[in-house]
Every structure is written in C-alpha cells, then in structure tokens.
Amino acid sequence: MKRGSMSAAQEGLTLVELVIASAITMVVLAGVSAMFAQGLRSQATTVNGDTATGRAQVVSMSLEKSLRNARKATISADGRSLAAEVLVSGAWKCQRWELVVHGSDPLKNTLTYTAGGTTSVLATGASASGGAVFGPPNSTVEYGARVTYDLRVDIANMSAQTEGTILLQGAGTGGATC
Residue 7: left if φ>0, alpha if ψ -120 to 50, beta else—which one? Predict the structure, then answer.
C-alpha cells in the first residue's frame, strides 16, 4: 500500500454525502414530528368530546333521578333555573339547578346544583340550546306533569347536547317548599 492511499474500509463520507444524509434525516424527522403533533391534536379533540359528553350525562342523570321523585317543580321566567321538592330518603328536600352565565364567554358558564345548603358545579361550558334550559319557563308543575330540559355543554371546540322530558312522580304532602 502506498503512503497516503486509504483502503475502502478507511474512507469517510464526503461533504456532499454528509449534507445529503443530513437533509434526508431532517425530512424524515419533520414527517415523524408532524404525525406526532397530529396525533396529539386528535387525542385532545377526543378527550374534549368525551369530557363534554360525560358532563352532559352527569346533568341528565342528576335531573332524571331527582325529578322522577319530585312532586313539584318551579321554573324561572327565563328558564335558567329550576327548584324542585324531591323525596329523598323518606323526607321532602329542596333541590335546585341553575345556569349561571359568566359574561359573554359561554365556556365559563356553569350549571350548578344545590341541595341541603351545598352548591356544586355539575358542568362548565354549559349553555341553553334554545334560550331556556328548563321548561315550560315561568311555571310551576306538579305531580303527574312534565318538565323539559335542553342543555349544551362545550369544551374547547367540542360540544355535547342533552335534552329530555321528565314526569314528576313524587306523591305525598308535607315537607320542604322551594
């Protein structure tokens, strides 16, 4: 072997080969990064949709369970609040649901539930689909009558709708008045 000559195993990459290899690597990494970012966005959308649906179901279950055992329900003039006399463990209790509007951003609105002096938030991002959450607005309905509800829950760019009609079936006298 002559001095200064290298065997094929000892040869390195030329600058051009190194630049081409780096460019190909960057293109592949950019594609993988874009796919990863899209996957994260899809996951966030799915989580938001599931959260909105879950919150809407919590509202629906709360209303259905309680109002089936109610003997009387009073709905506000704007249809944003409902107070009901509900039979709970053999005693009549006052329970209340109210859409609380926080400015012009519907994502900040809350649907609250109050029972026994304790208020909790059932859903954030709540809004009335048709103007009124509860119906018929400005009315008092009693045993054997129906109450309707129509609510939308928004989480970021996803929303879930819940609506229904509940027959008041709590019969009896005495107890709490709302």
Answer: beta
Alpha-carbon distances of 33 from 39, 40, 42, 127, 149, rounded to whole Å? 10, 11, 14, 37, 45
Q: Which stretches does DSSP call E strand in 101-138?
A: 110-115, 118-124, 126-128, 134-135
* Residue-wise pLDDT tens digits, 97-135: 999 998 888 889 999 999 989 999 999 999 987 779 999
In whole angstroms, give the CA distance from residue 35 to residue 47: 18
User: How many Å separate Cα 35 from the centre of its chain?
Assistant: 27
Judge whether residue 11 has pLDDT over 80: no
pLDDT at 71: 93
Asked whether the beta carbons of 166 and 67 are under 8 A apart, the reply is yes
Residue 2 pLDDT level (bands cut at 50, 70, 90): low
